[in-house]
Amino acid sequence: MAFFRPRVSREAEVRHHADQEVGRGFAQVLEKAREAERALRRARAEGAGAAELRAAGLAFDRALTDALRTAEAARRATLGVRAYDDRIRRRKGVATPEGARWTAEVDRLRTLREENRLTGIARVPRPFVSAPTGASAH
Fold first, then answer.
1. Interior CA angle at 22 toward 16 and 27, to 5°?
2. Which DSSP letter does residue 47 get?
3. Between 83 and which of 30, 60, 69, 79 could a Cys-Cys bridge form, CB atoms 3.0 to 4.6 Å apart?
4. Hey, where are the domains in the chain?
């Protein structure tokens, strides 16, 4: 009796290797995000203006997005090359301790980024422009 063992697609292998390369830089990217967070907190503590707070908040958002992309790549690489083509393999990979750790890290970074987008990016007030008088509203 012969057993059929499906081969992994070439595309899955290429994506797996690319994700491994991206995932290796997670520590450096995460440190950049921490540095951007410290800069944002420092600007808030010093009472910076709205424009500076907005710039620091946007820099933190970009750093978090980079960290999130890197963590997602590392998660996919950890789940294994077969997980790219097979959802059952993906679920089994998430059930491993390493897969669960990366999944929790991705969720943590995503939550932090959303929180920053909702409350951390200062809004610069726009000047009020009134409608011209005498214009009819139809």
1. 135
2. T
3. 79
4. 11-120
Q: How far apart are the first and last CA of the chain?
A: 80
C-alpha distance from residue 47 to each of 5, 43, 133 (Å) = 63, 6, 39
This prediction has a pTM of: 0.82
- Running along the chain, 138 residues long, what does each successive block of 10 average in pLDDT? 71 93 95 96 92 93 97 95 91 94 97 93 77 62
- Give the contacts of 120 (CB within 8 A, at least 6 positions apart): 40, 57, 60, 61
